Amino acid sequence: MKETESLLSIRDVSNTYTTQGFGGFGRKEEKPVLDHVSLEIAQGEIFGLVGESGCGKTTLGRCVLGLIDYEGEIIIDGLRQDRKRRKVMAKTVQAVFQDPSASLNPAKRVGWLLEEPLRQKTGRPWDKRERLRRVDEVLDLIGLESAYKSRRVNELSVGQKQRISIGCALMLRPRLIIADEPVSSLDVSVGAQILNLFRDLHENLGLALLFISHNLDLVYYLCDRIAVMYQGRIVETGTAEAVYSSPKHEYTRKLLAVGLSL
Ligand SMILES: Nc1ncnc2c1ncn2[C@@H]1O[C@H](COP(=O)(O)OP(=O)(O)OP(=O)(O)O)[C@@H](O)[C@H]1O
Ligand SMILES: [Mg+2]
């Protein structure tokens, strides 16, 4: 991959959580989670990160978003990530999480929620007409009619809510979306529609995706390349085809042997 094509470069990233037992009165313990993780995502690439529960996938996503400290280096579109740059980075990287019911205020109207990133993060005022135009564009991108603007979140199905979460992430025209188990709280057919929406967004907008999942089948279906994480380390990276058809690492072979999902 040429340097100019790289959108996200994670270089030698390690992190440790400090935990303290007994409600904060116990002994402090350092818990290493990420262990020298490196990976590259190209502009417009769909990249899958797969691994069993607790291996560190969400933690890596949080490092990329600048939410937690780490050692090593994360370069996003040529800029080094650090926690002070979070607002700048928000225009390039956005996130979608597992449970849209937890991340969207149920009492708010869809239009208000979609406009929120424009109020918060842009560094310039957007006039009302501009905001409404962007909301309509994004509703179209996520496959909902313009009339959904005036619906309240608690009137929506869980699949529609996940579309709105994706819409909120799209408002500022990011280049990369980190999707952390985005279909795990959906039933299979609704989940498949959301995967197809990600694929359409990738094709129509050239959007890159870091798709995090514990399900190797989903990752194989959606992604160009895959990294397999095990106990905080990347044990294998390759095209989806290569990882699926000729896994190199023993852990990946075990995953495939137990029925293709972790
Ligand atoms: N805020 C925190 N404080 C202390 N330990 C944490 C914290 N968040 C996560 N951990 C621990 O770090 C490890 C990695 O967690 P992480 O959530 O990144 O895993 P994951 O791969 O996303 O798992 P899952 O598939 O269940 O979402 C786990 O052992 C978890 O218990
Ligand atoms: Mg997780």
What fraction of residues sit in β-strands?
A: 25-35%
> How many strand units?
10
Helical content band: 25-40%
Strand order in space, largest sheet = 6-7-8-3-9-10
Radius of gyration: 19 Å
Distance between the termini: 29 Å
Helix-strand sequence: EEEHEEHEHHHHEHEHEEHH
Outline the biggest β-sheet.
6 strands, mixed
The chain-level structural class is alpha/beta
Bound molecules: adenosine-5'-triphosphate, magnesium ion
Quote the average pLDDT: 91
Pick out the low-confidence regions. Answer: none
Per DSSP, the total helix count is 10
Shape: globular
Secondary structure layout:
Layout: E1 6-20, E2 28-42, E3 46-50, H1 57-64, E4 71-76, E5 79-80, H2 86-89, E6 93-96, H3 100-103, H4 110-120, H5 128-141, H6 158-170, E7 176-180, H7 188-205, E8 208-213, H8 216-222, E9 225-230, E10 233-239, H9 240-245, H10 250-257
Parallel strand pairs: 3-8, 3-9, 6-7, 7-8
Antiparallel strand pairs: 1-2, 1-4, 4-5, 9-10
Helix pairs in contact: 4-5, 4-6
Bound molecules: adenosine-5'-triphosphate and magnesium ion.
Magnesium ion is lined by residues 57-58, 180.
